[in-house]
Structures are given as C-alpha cells and as structure tokens.
Amino acid sequence: MISLLAAHAPRLDRACKRIAKRGGEAVLIDGTLIPIVRRTGRANRLNYSGIHRRHGLHFLALTDEKGHLVWISAARLGRTHDITAARRDHILTHLRTAGLGALADLGFLGLDDNPDHP
Length: 118
Fold this sequence. Notes:
The chain is α+β, with helices and mostly antiparallel strands. The chain has helices spanning 2-8, 12-21, 82-88, 91-98, and strands spanning 26-35, 48-49, 54-63, 69-72, 76-77, 101-104. It starts with a helix and ends in a 14-residue tail after the last strand.
C-alpha cells in the first residue's frame, strides 16, 4: 500500500517545475514533527526532538503561494533539523533549476551560503 502511494507522490523537481509553469514565483517551506508513541530501547532515542521535547518523525513540506501542499519529504528521524533535511533533499538546487524563490522560517537560516544566487 505504501509503495502504491509513493509511486503517485510528486517528485520535488516536478513539483517545483509545475509551480513555475503556473506562474508562481516562490514556495513556502517548513519542517514539522509528527508525534509518535515512544517505544523502549536505544534505537528509538533517535526519534526524540529536543526542540519539541517529544518523540516523532520529521517531515519537510512545500506549499505554493496560496498554501496548497505540493510536496512532502520522506520521514526522517525526529532529531533531524530543518536545514539538514533541506540540504539532504537538495531543495535549493531544485528551486534554482525551476527559477523559484522560497519563504521559510529561522530554521532554514544559513541554508543559502551562496550570495550570488539569493
């Protein structure tokens, strides 16, 4: 069932191109923690988010300028920071390729270290 849903989910590059094709200029990006029930054992400690003080799974979400969800990342460990997840998904590369800008919160401060392409 999950593989069927994943097959229909849009890829990040295609989602960015679709927004640019519709005339969009920017996307909104944010990370969120989906709470989970804590299991015992050392392996589950990686799902603990110190910021939220609870266990969960971390996701990045991209919306268009109207707030419609266009892409969501794969689940990551709850301790993953927004900027780390964005770098692993190469979000800046996809946005620049599509010619889009992004609005984000302070969790992404420092993501764009290239002053030539703000």
